[in-house]
Structure formats: structure tokens, C-alpha cells
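Methods, example record. To illustrate the input and output format used throughout this study, we show the complete record for Unsaturated rhamnogalacturonyl hydrolase. The sequence lines were provided to the predictor; the line carrying C-alpha cells was produced by it.
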Amino acid sequence: MIDNRNINYAASIVLGFMMLFFCCKIIAQGSLKNEIVIAKDLNWSERMALSIMKRDPKAWQIDNNEKPKWDYKLGLVMTSFEKLYHKTNNPVYGDYIKEYGETVINPSGEILNYKLEDYNIDNINAGKMLFDLHKRTKDNRYLTAMQTLRKQLETHPRTSSGGFWHKKIYPYQMWLDGLYMGTPFYAHYTLDFDGGKDFNDIAKQFEEIHLHTIDKKTGLLFHAWDESKQMPWANKETGTSPNFWSRSIGWYMMALVDVLDYMPKDHPKRKELIQFLNEISIAVAKYQDPSGLWYQVTDAGSKEGNYLEASGSEMFVYAFAKGANKGYLPKKYKDLAVKGFEGITKKLIRVDPDGEIHITQVCASAGLGGNPYRDGSFDYYIKEKIKVDNSHGLGPFILAALELEK
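The corresponding predicted structure is encoded as:
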């Protein structure tokens, strides 16, 4: 006769072992992020990358996102990880990108939360990581996704003179931000798949934004231009927004140095883009603070409320350093980049006892129009949220560090 007490006792033992196993597994998974050791003698680029991975084991978790999404800011961080991966050959960085790619692009090549008909130029930026992912994995989901993004550019609405609108919901508007969001992907795609046929159109984007947003007095570029001159923020004579925002100028400068990676050396528009880079670099250098940093509102200095902002400073450092490294800019800009990066690490980087690093004083976001309405005033820019470890400040930090580590 079977004793039920013995069976129950045995079952409880087995159940106990199973519960212990699953508890240990959960604890182990939870401690994975704590296994990352960030040595203080590592280069700044790796210290930041490892700090990001320690806080956010999955790339989509950056910025405290609660679920995966296709996002220009995450694309910016993935671009920096790709550069770091190619420098170090450490698969940890490559796998971080790959896991994100597999999460936001399904096996059929469909992009998570992407709608072509939104005609949002921001949605192009994360596509830059797809070239390398396709090359590394031979997975055609990435090729399909690239083709989808290129298709958007074919029908993306434009100004009457040929410039891409920033978004469908912002008709007739070009923003400096949009140059970085669209043109480096466009340049890489036309080089790899279209025989370089679109470089004139790519140069056209820079020509239009330069023509319509440049301020002849300072040499700086206003954040945006409304061709229709109908937006309340737009100057009724020129269509420009009223202020200079450092990060927007940084987007423009990063777009220039990155597009030049793909434009053939004998292309007739190449010299023009290098000239644009030199002109904006001269203007931006005038506003570098003695600390090495730049202010949120570029030309307003220490006016009450203005502050030394991380992401714009990092973008300027990256563009100066890369421009000098590539020979587009005079060597003195490398020195200005070094000064800027020292300012970032001394004044804006916070280091935890365990070596984890954080970037402070990052403007969370800024734009024009929309709901609630953003008027582009000085008060608007200085009152936008300031965050720690916002993605806008993470990717450019790594990119700037890598250029200065060359």
C-alpha cells in the first residue's frame, strides 16, 4: 500500500528544490548588471559604454523606457557603440547593438512602431546601425528595414526649394536637427546601393539650411526655418526661429563631418560642405566658455538662467576633433576639442565609488511649435528639463571621446 504522507513529503522536497533553483536564477539574472566592472584606468569611451550597459542591460531601457521602441536617440547611442565596437573588437559592444536590432526589427524586416506615412525625419537616424548589422549577420531583415527608410526619403515632403520637412506635422519647416537625422543614412545608402547618385540632393539639404538659417552677425545658425513664415515663432521676414540652441547647431556639425565620410573626394559638392564646416566652426569657437564648455543658448553666455549644457558641448567637441583629424579643419580645433572634453569630464561627469560614470546637465529635449506650444524664446530653452544620463548626452560623449583617443 502506497503511503500518501511519503509522496507528499517527497513532492514538497522536489518543490522546495525547484523554488530554490528559480529564486537563484532570478537573483543571478538580477545581478548580471552588477557583474560589469568599470576600471578607472579605461578610456573614457569604454567607461561610459560600460556604465550605460550596467544601468541598462538592454539598449531599449536607456532613458527609463518601459518598452522597446525604434527611436532616434537610441540610434544615436547605437552609432557610438558601433564606433566603439570597431575600435576595440570587443563583442560585448557589438552584441548590445545586435540585441537591440533584433528587438525592434522583426524577422520580416518590419520596424517596431514605425509609420512611413508620418514622414518624420527623426525616424531615419536609427537606420545607420543597420548597415553594419546586415554586414555582420547577413540577416536580410536589416536590408529590408534600410530599404523601407530609403523609401520614406523618396516621397518625404519638401520645401519648394527641395529641403526635407522636419516632420509631416511641421509643414514647410526645416530644423537643424533634421540634417543629422536624415543625411548620414542617406549618404551611406546612396554610396552602398545607388552608386552615389544622390550626393547632390544630400548637399542640397545643407545648402538650404545654410542659406535660410545663417545669422550674418554671429555666423551661427538659427534652430529652424519656416518657409511659409506662418508659425508664430517664425520671423515674418526671414522665417527663422528667434534663438541659437547649441544642440541644434551640434546636430548640424555632426551631420557635416559624418556625411563627408561617404562623399567621394572628387565630388564637386565636397568642398562646399567642408567650407560650411569651417564657417560654423569659426562662429562656434567664439562662444566657447573659458571652462571649455558651451551654453544652452549659444550666444547668451552667463545671462541669468543660461547654463553650460552637456550634449551641445559634446557635439562641438566631436565635430572639432573629427574635422581636425580628417583634415577638414585647421589643427587648432583639435586643441579646442581637448579643452572642451576636459571641461566635460571635470565639470559635468559624476563618478560613483564603483567606477560608474554619469553625464549631468543634459537638456532633455527642445523643439518648436507643437502642443504644448514651444515658442523658441530664450526663456523656453532655459526652462526645458535638465537631466542626468539622458541619451542625448550619452552617445555624443562616446563619439567625442573616441575621436580624441585616436
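Annotations derived from this record:
The chain has one domain: 45-404.
The beta strands are 173-175, 224-226, 349-351, 357-359, 362-363, 386-387.
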